[in-house]
Design the sequence.
């Protein structure tokens, strides 16, 4: 094995990926076999949601097809057609994963409601989990199969392979960008629009079947939290792997890489360094699959503990397996330390996020609602800002530890470790909107309190895991960006600049500093435009809902049906139009800076946007989560002397509404921004360095 | 003159500084000579405000004395007693300027009200301006005199001079930090507390004499906008000058400096490079003095245009004078270009800030209040985020242009240019709280509508100039930090690291990247803790006001007097306690990072906090300004179909309340944070580099 890694090892991630995909099919079939809704209303509403979700996806994919075609041609003429094809592959697999996941989720929601209607909580949990597992396995499986295919077929030409992998990652990133931002705008426009129109204007409760916006709200959960989140996590996993491969190929001095496998030649070491991220991600997927089966076995216990274990056990298992594998591969255990730092750090960030969005801080936010909306907002903003501190410190510790072990390659391996559990994290994430939808369907169909009690419990667990998932997604994005940034700066510093002088990315260089300031602008720009986008789109929805209540006789009295398709249509159009500006900013800013101001300014820009983007997105996601749960805290009657509908609750609803675009649109949008910028920079690095 | 700069030039800034101080005395006398309030109530209230303001200052100074003593001893044992004394001098002059300014402001407020009562708008404007001019001239005059004294006395020992100037700047920074944060917490706690208690709990209007919190609110205007702002601007001016001197002394290759005065020897060039920032600041002060006299001459015209001209003409005059001076000093006109870029850039940032806090954007915020508080908040946050873009681009352009002219020295000169108008900017800034106080005194004393009309006009102009001043302060802080950062990195890269290897601040170094992430945390930390501090302190004030209304018979009916001194006392104590945590973070974070993780991590930390701090503070300051003016827009009846007290207005009041700590506590607090961190780093650079 020394010197040349056996083909079996290199292909192992593909094999595991294919097994994952086969299991996704199995789970999909499992979900489909379950009984559909027992009442006509349930099926009608489920049908509305499914049609709305798939209609959005279809139209979004049309827009993305145009974008993909433009980039395909551009790449073909600049970096060659191999890169252009890899870009399309990376994008296509992301779309495919999103499509499969949405198919499963929109079948699973009504079936989960039906299981709850029949009184079986374990069955309901199982169906929701199986539905989520389709997305989780599709995301991880397709990503691994695609990357391994590129790696394997080009393994004898590392330089070409490197560029091709970058292009693959840009494909993944682009789709993630638009899916996340478009989906985020859709889901929150529908949510805010339906809430404002329903609660404020017409005075009817949440999820009331008379409200024409409720279906769009449920569609939005799928569009945002299944398709959007899936594309986001898929791209993080791809980017982490690609950055690790890139660093192992370009580390000129190989100071740190040399200690990776002291027994091997330099070539053998580089080969091992390039293959390890894939092999370890394959191991992560295998462990995730076992985790998903474990959850099935445990389905009789408390849903909260089932899902919690799904997030905590895999990092530990991954560490154990790596410790056994490394000697077999001839690699040092330093790899295991980096991997463990990333995996355990990711779980720790998830738990901190849970603390800030579920424990003492949200009681503080709820408490501050006693004196009105202003104090609720101030407290929520402060909690969000505070919540930045510990996760960022964890990331610093992970980066410091892994850098001490294996240099920047170690940091990339830590990112791989953090994302090795992609399949199970995504499963648990996609479980959220399914159980949320199940609750919505039950409410709209007028099912009884016992049914709601089951769906409410599943849903509330889903809310917590969603918050954990968001913190994890942003944390892993930040670490991935650090790894990508390192890969970019290595490409640049190893290139010859104009006049043959190598580039230096020194902070004493004013160009770098100007880049830092320019980069600092972008997260605020994208954040402003996505928040405004939600506002615009929500306003259109409010107007349409008001129109329906005015023009459809008997709607308010419950004797006539609303026209949800109109709302779905408005939300779809608005989301697709509004996602263009922030999307273009993310792609054009690094491209223009790189070509006009040069690679050093671009390096500064990446550092500036990393600093601002990572903190700003954590702040927004966690403020939003805290407001949301503070409102629920009051609704549950946990704030002494205050009830749902009272003044404190009204104040908390204001916070919740502000938090909606914070946590589900702007926050994730900014996180994806910094990933896209780094991936694009990595791809164009050879072009701007050798001009 | 070639080779050796004549003593006359070097001492010129001191002479102009002394003239400025003499004029400050003259204006102080002028204010004092004006008739005091014509009614007993006016004088009583003015007395309350004055006593409250001076009491706060006295107690704050006691706390600062302890801090100063600790740092004095620490510096004495590490960097020597000369540096320790310079630190105390820098701090003392800041405190002295604040004391003089507050004396003048708290005399001018009631006299301005009296002039308005007698029906003379020009006189009222004049008194308010004269009162402001005392602060403006004290800040610039004391700063210049102090710096020139240090520079002159140590000019033959550049190395010692450099460290001594850094220590002077740290003294200035420390006071600015605590005065700004403590003052910011005080003013907004009193404002929010009085508003919530008055409007929400007791249902009485703003500035109502029955509300025991109103006096504290008026005290807060002085404490925050006179003393706090003054210390802030003083430290920016000092830091800009010190960074320019430091760069001219440490530029080893002198690549760019060489083109500063092609006819001079290297020593002559360095001397000129070190003296220029002082000379140019002296010129700026002279122009500001002329500007203040011009405003006196023009006092009959519209107040808005008088103040606007005060901010626009000086940069142009400065450019013209510099163009004449440079040939006389043997320096290239590149200096003039850098200076002009900074001065005009600063004015441009002020105007952009005005746009975002007074024009179309605030109409959007007002408009969004129609659908409630949540949409008002979302829109205000989005406006603030958007408002980051153009000022940051202006700063990038200024930095790019000045760097192209004279390298990093040019960037420092641009910062000097931006702050050359310190005296007049501060005059206009301090005018704001004086006219605001005059309005408050008129209202509380029950003066007629004609009087209120005059004070309202003066006050509303003050609000706009305050917004401009805030944008300017943050913009100049950012550019100053870039200059300070450059000075720091030069100190570090010219030092020998451990093992004799020089330090490199490369972005490919994981330590630098970790520093960037650590630095990104701090602005969020300080922002969270200052917002919470306002919340805590406001809550205490609300409780005390409620107590007074309950326990003082006849207070609500207006037959008994409130006890404002209690509120003043609570606000003072709360502000002094709450300022400690953010203050320590600002000072300890760079110190600990520098000593534990080393100078490269500290460089990354400064870059990360620069990126996040500059944008976050602009965002918060401008969101706050937009909410404030959106509320006023509705109050003036400019939002169709909505009146004061209506639903849209109530929603706008929520935004205004959230905006209070945003714009006057957290925003400026974060801006000062990044300045303090850079100055502290510059001071400790020799200690951490040569360990």
Sequence:
């Amino acid at each position: 094995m020394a010197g040349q890694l056996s083909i079996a090892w290199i292909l192992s991630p593909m094999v595991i990926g294919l097994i994952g995909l086969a299991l996704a099919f199995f789970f999909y079939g499992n979900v489909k076999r379950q009984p559909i809704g027992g009442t006509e209303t349930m099926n009608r509403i489920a049908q509305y949601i499914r049609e709305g979700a798939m209609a959005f996806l279809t139209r979004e994919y049309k827009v993305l097809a145009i974008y993909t075609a433009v980039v395909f041609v551009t790449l073909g003429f600049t970096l060659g057609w191999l890169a252009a094809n890899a870009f399309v592959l990376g994008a296509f697999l992301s779309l495919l994963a999103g499509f499969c996941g949405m198919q499963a989720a929109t079948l699973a929601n009504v079936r989960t409601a039906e299981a709850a209607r029949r009184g079986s909580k374990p069955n309901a949990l199982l169906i929701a989990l199986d539905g989520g597992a389709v997305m989780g396995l599709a995301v991880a499986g397709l990503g691994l199969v695609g990357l391994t295919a590129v790696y394997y077929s080009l393994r004898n030409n590392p330089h070409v392979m490197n560029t091709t992998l970058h292009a693959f990652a840009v494909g993944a990133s682009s789709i993630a960008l638009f899916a996340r931002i478009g989906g985020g705008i859709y889901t929150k426009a529908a949510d805010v629009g339906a809430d404002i129109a329903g609660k404020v204007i017409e005075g009817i409760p949440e999820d009331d079947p008379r409200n024409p916006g409720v279906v769009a709200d449920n569609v939005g959960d799928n569009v945002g939290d299944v398709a959007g989140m899936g594309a986001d996590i898929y791209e993080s996993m791809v980017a982490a792997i690609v950055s690790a491969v890139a660093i192992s190929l370009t580390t000129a001095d190989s100071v740190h890489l040399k200690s990776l496998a002291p027994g091997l030649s330099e070539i053998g070491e580089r080969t091992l360094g390039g293959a390890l991220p894939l092999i370890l991600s394959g191991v992560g997927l295998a462990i995730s699959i076992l985790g998903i089966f474990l959850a099935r076995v445990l389905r009789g216990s408390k849903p909260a503990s089932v899902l919690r274990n799904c997030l905590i056990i895999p990092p530990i298992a991954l560490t154990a397996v790596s410790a056994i594998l490394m000697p077999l591969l001839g690699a040092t255990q330093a790899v295991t330390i980096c991997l463990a730092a990333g995996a355990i750090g990711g779980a720790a960030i998830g738990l901190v996020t849970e603390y800030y969005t579920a424990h003492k801080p949200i009681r503080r936010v709820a408490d501050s609602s006693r004196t009105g909306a202003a104090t609720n907002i101030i407290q929520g903003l402060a909690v969000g800002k505070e919540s930045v501190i510990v996760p960022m410190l964890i990331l610093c510790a992970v980066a410091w530890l892994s850098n001490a072990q294996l240099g920047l390659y170690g940091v990339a391996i830590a990112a791989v470790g953090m994302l090795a559990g992609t399949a199970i994290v995504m499963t648990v994430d996609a479980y959220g909107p399914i159980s949320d939808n199940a609750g919505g369907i039950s409410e709209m169909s007028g099912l009884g309190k016992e049914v709601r009690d089951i769906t409410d419990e599943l849903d509330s667990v889903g809310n917590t895991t969603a918050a954990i998932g968001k913190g994890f997604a942003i944390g892993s994005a930040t670490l991935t960006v650090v790894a990508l940034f390192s890969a970019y700066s290595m490409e640049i510093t190893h290139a010859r600049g104009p006049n043959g002088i190598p580039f230096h990315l020194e902070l004493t260089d004013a160009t770098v500093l100007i880049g830092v300031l320019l980069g600092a602008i972008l997260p605020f720009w994208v954040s402003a435009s996505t928040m405004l986008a939600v506002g615009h789109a929500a306003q259109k929805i409010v107007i349409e809902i008001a129109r329906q209540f005015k023009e459809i006789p008997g709607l308010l009295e419950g004797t006539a049906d609303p026209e949800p398709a109109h709302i779905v249509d408005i939300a779809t159009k608005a989301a697709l139009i509004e996602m263009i500006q922030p999307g273009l900013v993310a792609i054009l800013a690094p491209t223009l800076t790189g070509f006009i101001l040069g690679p050093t300014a671009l390096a500064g820009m990446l550092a500036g946007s990393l600093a601002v983007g990572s903190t700003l997105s954590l702040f927004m996601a966690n403020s939003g989560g805290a407001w949301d749960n503070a409102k629920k805290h009051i609704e549950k009657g946990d704030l002494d002397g205050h009830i749902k509908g009272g003044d404190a609750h009204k104040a908390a609803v204001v916070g919740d509404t502000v938090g909606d675009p914070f946590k589900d649109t702007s926050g994730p949008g900014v996180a994806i921004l910094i990933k896209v910028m780094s991936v694009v920079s990595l791809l164009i690095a050879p072009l701007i360095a050798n001009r």
Notes: DSSP finds 19 helices and no strands in chain A. The radius of gyration of chain A is 24 Å.
